[in-house]
User: Fold this.
Amino acid sequence: MKQLKLNNGWFSNTRSDVLSGMTVAIALIPEAIAFSILAGVSPMVGLYASFCIAIVTSFAGGRPGMISAATGAMALLVGSLVIQHGIEYLFAATVLAGVFQIVMGMLKLGRFITFLPQPVMTGFVNALAILIFMAQLTHFKGQSWVMYALVALTLLIIYTVPLFTKAVPSALVAIIIVSVLSIVLDLDVKTVGDMGEITSALPLFHLPQLPFTMDTLLIILPYSLSLAVVGLLESLMTATLIDDITGTGSDKNREAKGQGLANIVTGFFGGMAGCAMIGQSMVNMKSGGRTRLSTFVSGIFLLFLILVLGDIVKQIPMGALVGVMIMVCISTFEWGSLKTLARVPLSDALVMIVTVVTVVTVVLTDNLSIGVLFGVLLSALTFAWKIASISLSVQTSADMVTYVVSGQLFFGTTSHFIHEFNYEGDPENIRIDFTHSHVWDQSAAGAIAKTISKYAAYGKSVTITGLNEESTQLVKRVGLSLSGGHS
Assistant:
């Protein structure tokens, strides 16, 4: 059984996983360097983080085939911390963020990702596709037509190679061909080496050099909480996306603990906080990566590139990597959602559009979790508006009136419920039928009691019928008797 589990988790897709992991590793380098610059630290901090996080999550993560490393959202959160207090505080904040994520995993908070509505997920994916594309535009600044030609050639190779063979990832083929062409022809284009200095050195264990005092804790605490929440949110949403792509499930709580352990390790080895990367995860998926082996290879090969092939890596033209990322944008964007906008309910379409606009706007200045929060909040309000409607139909006879309640009775509908009755004009016997309703909370039970009390003030008797078992238990628990004249 253990051997079968090992094969399924690691070696069921070996060749594709190894090649896709190598492709991801190459694409990770410029992004890790760019995110390091964004955070105000040495490029090696982002590279070490990407190596450590990929290796740890390949073993401890809950979503096989997902790529985690240093990310832009996390880099944005720590920029001010580095400027004001220095890099040692960044390492400490990263470790503490990891501790918070492990606690979140132990509390099983990963299950709350199921509360994200589909329009929010679609909006999140589309927004990230737009942001990944926008991030590539900076590489064209100051470049000649050669840069555009290399990007076009990369895309041409990526989309034509699968027509002839799928034995190797087309993205890896494109990177190799375009790189060889650029080096042989000595083209004057922007390369990976222009992004920042790469040194051939192993990451070493390092305790953050700062005073272990309450003041230090208060400084890093808000940053660590933000890193933990944003990182976990991005990781769980990316895991959910990969679940859909692969048709397989993942352990969200294990992923939370795995992300936490990875951040603790990277914090002690000179790296910055990271999380799942939707762009690189999509590169892995499109290149055939499916198991933990692909994530592990991406980390190991990244270190190999830094230590052994650093001089060659520096010569890789950015045009090749930009082409790969544009392919990721095209494949990530949910093009079908544009067609369904006119067919889905207006509220769902609005939620998706708001999520996209908010994520794109907010990421340009801060972090994308706020955009997702807006989408969830709008979905919650829309849902609340839909269910916060209750109606009463009236059936009358000579000596009795029956009110048939339809809809959910909870704190949001109690006021409307109470005002629907004709307390003074109704006959002496009133029946309220809850067959098509459900009593959800104390406010709802209180509204029933208040209705009975109002009728009692006019000397009239109320009979409650049709309550389901849960509603009956709730009503009894708050002290409302259902016996006798009020049964």
Residues 214-246 form the longest helix (33 residues). Residues 42 and 266 are 15 Å apart (CA to CA).
